Amino acid sequence: MLKPDYPVRTPRLVLRPFTPDDLDALYDFHRLPEVARYLYHEPRNRAEVSVLLQGKIAASVLPADGKALCLAAELAGTGQLVGDCTLFWLSQIHQQGEIGFIFHPAFQGRGLASEAAGAMLRLGFEGLGLHRIIGRCDGRNQASAGVMERNGMRREAHLIENEFVKGEWTDELIYAILRREWEASAPARD
């Protein structure tokens, strides 16, 4: 079980559990076509984001494998919600996890997603004692691929046209990092 000591801080972000007050800010970016472009779903309406938010509020603790920890990423200086981060506990037996992140386009390109992804890796390795953490993205999503690469994750697979998403065949990139690799990169992170 993982119950982080909140808030989780990075140099510019505060990661914390979602609250009902996050609806407007979460809707502000989940409704955008450019946010949903490489995801499995279309842009979400307010009612869909409200339902999504309820699930995220309930996911502030990671009780067992097969579950996810969902955290809001807000700017440390202003408290503005700018991102949505997830740590999936894929397997307790195999000590495997997966990270995911979605950031408001107005705050992309500043390294914030990289900071948040690094914090989620830390939670997975230090909090859960995972052996391996993966990340996946659409093959066209170079921004997400870059976030994973900047966090020391290596591209392990480029699956060609492996999924039919939104009416087209899409490629998928799979990245991974082992705990020992993450620990060895500590001087670069500090």
Could you walk me through the main structural features you see in this protein, from its secondary elements to its overall organization?
This protein has 190 residues and is of the alpha+beta class. It has a domain of 125 residues: Gcn5-related N-acetyltransferase (GNAT) (Aminopeptidase, 3-Layer(aba) Sandwich). The protein is 31% helix and 34% strand. The protein contains seven helices and eight strands. The protein has an eight-stranded mixed β-sheet with strand order 1-2-3-4-5-6-8-7, with helices on both faces. Helix 1 crosses helix 3. It is globular and about 40 Å long. The model has no long low-confidence stretch (mean pLDDT 96).
Sequence stretches where pLDDT stays below 50 over 5 or more residues: none
State the fourth-level CATH superfamily of the domain at 8-132. Gcn5-related N-acetyltransferase (GNAT)
Overall radius of gyration: 16 Å
- CATH classification, class level of the domain at 8-132: Alpha Beta
Strand proportion, as a percent range, falls in 25-35%
What is the CATH architecture term of the domain at 8-132?
Answer: 3-Layer(aba) Sandwich
Which strands sit side by side, in order, in the main sheet? Answer: 1-2-3-4-5-6-8-7
Report the total helices.
7
Secondary-structure content class? alpha+beta
Oligomer: single chain
Q: If you consult CATH, what is the topology of the domain at 8-132?
A: Aminopeptidase
The counted number of beta strands is 8
Global geometry: globular
Give the proportion of residues in helices. 25-40%
